[in-house]
Amino acid sequence: MDEKTILAVDDTPEILENLIGILGDDYDMRLAKTASAAWTVLHLTEVNLILLDIEMPGMSGFDFLEIINTTRTEYKHIPVIFISSNAEQETIDKAMRMGAAGYITKPFLPENLHDMISSIFL
User: Fold this and answer.
1) What is the strand order of the sheet 80-84 is part of?
2) pLDDT in tens, 21-37
C-alpha cells in the first residue's frame, strides 16, 4: 500500500508536533502553520487528507474550506478533518454542512484520530 500524505494545518507548533508524534510512523506528514503555507503544500505535494484547525490568524479553517469548495475545486476531492478546541454543536454542524469528513475536539485521544483517519482511508 502506498503511504498516504496528510497535511496538518494549525497555528500552534505544539499541536503540529503532537500530530507528528501520533501519525508520523504511519503517514507522510506535511505541516503548515498558516492557510497560506497550506496552499503552497497543496500546490507542491499530492495530499490525501487535510487536518485543519478552525481558528487561525489570517484565514480561518472555515474560510480555507470555503475556498476549496468554491474556487480551488481541484482540491475538493481531499477529505478534511477539523481539529479544533471549539466543541460547540453549532460549530461542528457548520463544519459537517461544509463537507468536512470529520470533526475532533482538542484535546483528543490519539486512537480516536487514528480511527477516524482509518475509516476515511478504507
Assistant:
1) 28-32, 5-9, 49-52, 80-84, 102-105
2) 999 999 999 999 999 99
The range of the structural domain enclosing residue 71 comes to 5-120
Separation in Å, CA 108 to CA 40, 79, 80, 111, 116: 28, 19, 17, 9, 12
Q: What is the 3-state secondary structure of 1-44?
A: CCCCEEEEECCCHHHHHHHHHHHCCCCEEEEECCHHHHHHHHHH
Q: Mind listing the pLDDT tens digit for each residue in 78-109?
A: 999 999 999 999 999 999 999 999 999 999 99
Domain count, the chain: 1
Nearest Cα residue to 26 out of 58, 1, 61: 1
pTM of the model: 0.96
CATH number, domain of 116, equals 3.40.50.2300
What is the rounded distance in angstroms from the CA atom of residue 113 to the CA atom of residue 104? Answer: 7
